[in-house]
Amino acid sequence: MFSTDTIFALSSGSLPSGVAVIRISGPQCRAIWEELCGSEPQPRRAAYVALRDTDNELIDRGIGIFFAGPASFTGEDCVELQVHGSKAVVAKLLSTLSAMPGLRAAEAGEFTRRAYMNGKLDLANVEALSDLIAAETETQRRFAIANSSGRHREIYDSWRAKLIEARALIEAELDFADEADVPGSVSDRVWKDVRELRGRISAHLSAYHHAEIIREGLQVVILGAPNAGKSSLMNVLAQRDVAIVTDEAGTTRDVLEVHLDLGGLKVNLADTAGLRETPGKVEAIGIQRSLDRASSADLVLLVEDMANPVMVPGLPDVPTIRVGNKADLVTDTKCRDYDCVISTRTGEGIDRLISSLRQHADQYTASAGSIIPFRERHKVLLEEALAHLDIALEESELELAAERMRLASDALGRICGRIDVEDLLDTIFARFCIGK
Ligand SMILES: Nc1nc2c(ncn2[C@@H]2O[C@H](COP(=O)(O)OP(=O)(O)OP(=O)(O)O)[C@@H](O)[C@H]2O)c(=O)[nH]1
Ligand SMILES: [K+]
Ligand SMILES: [Mg+2]
């Protein structure tokens, strides 16, 4: 892509700071360097420079690096200037830049957009990069960095290549069925391959939920009878008094949520209204909300007061850790069927409960290193590809089936932003001696 504008921006965080980084990209970079630093730029060498304005007045001294395109982040000539992170230094430098001809302030995401337009990044790379910048937990960081590796593109390209080949074989069968030197019925093999690919895409897609958990957080809901100690447990896990605790049954009426970082995984922990059969009007609404929330949760902590165990109605079918609370009030806990015995009052068993939670979280943190769809957009396109393949596999008209395969491979191509209409012809010509 040819950009006429040279863009610049403060790329580091808020001022004042020890060091501020100003990034410049575009055709004017070399001229800017000569003007500001009064020297010839040496690509990829950090240089200690005196930065001067157009009146030759010293602005600041700092480190400058020149990247000659295409070996740069955006693919264009780039300059990075590290100066003292003062508001005045940065303001002076930015106003000096903006006074130079052909220069303007960059729009949000414009450097990355240029990198994409110049083929330095694919769409999935761009998304992973924005995830990396937004990452708050260790798992999110690991996931984003794995996703920026380009391995998604490799997988989707290989799947598209298979589909393009399958389609080419089918089209060839249609076009040259009466000619002697084209292989006869290749259909069986083609359909077997397509079915196998369908299975792979479907397995890949089913891991999408792990990406949601890594990004949005593991949804954990505390359920149990009134007064079981749910709010007390919430406070212990959150390490602060977020929920009201009293000895009155029905204290919690509404769902209350906190965000925790559990071994690097984001966890959304919800305290809920106690479940019982004959509540008042407000409490009944609270109970319905508890159950709604729990039914879409990834994990339920089912809390029971061991000194006063009661059956709770309507538990959802969700992975559950059964927690026996108030261990301080009972002498014998062995015979009971709990995964974890705790006392929110004495702190007994809390560490063990946290390690059970961590164990549960591990399956998701482990996914952070594998290649799974990581955006809603990917999920939608993969579902689209699957839907087309399903129709192709049922379709008896070969032309229509081939068209469905084209649509499926286009959907896959759109994930990383690469669709090449010439692919099909190339494959046909590569496999058959058309011009005989
Ligand atoms: N002895 C003892 N009391 C506890 C323990 N945990 C909670 N309690 C007490 O049990 C009572 C109920 O605690 P909450 O945390 O409000 O219980 P809850 O399940 O949130 O109750 P609802 O919101 O009304 O459904 C309070 O008086 C707590 O102090 C514990 O481990 N030991
Ligand atoms: K209570
Ligand atoms: Mg409560």
Automatic annotation (TrEMBL):
Binding site for Mg(2+): S231, T252
Record-linked Gene3D superfamilies: P-loop containing nucleotide triphosphate hydrolases (3.40.50.300), Probable tRNA modification gtpase trme, domain 1 (3.30.1360.120), tRNA modification GTPase MnmE domain 2 (1.20.120.430)
Main location: cytoplasm
Pfam families recorded: MMR_HSR1, MnmE_helical, TrmE_N
Protein keywords: Cytoplasm, GTP-binding, Hydrolase, Magnesium, Metal-binding, Nucleotide-binding, Potassium, tRNA processing
Co-factor(s): K(+)
Record GO terms (molecular function): hydrolase activity
Domain of life: Bacteria
EC number: 3.6.-.-
Start and end residues of each TrmE-type G domain: 217-362
UniProt feature coiled coil, ranges: none
Family: Belongs to the TRAFAC class TrmE-Era-EngA-EngB-Septin-like GTPase superfamily. TrmE GTPase family.
Subunit and interaction comment: Homodimer. Heterotetramer of two MnmE and two MnmG subunits.
HAMAP family, sorted: GTPase_MnmE
Protein name stated in the entry: tRNA modification GTPase MnmE
Species annotation: Chelativorans composti
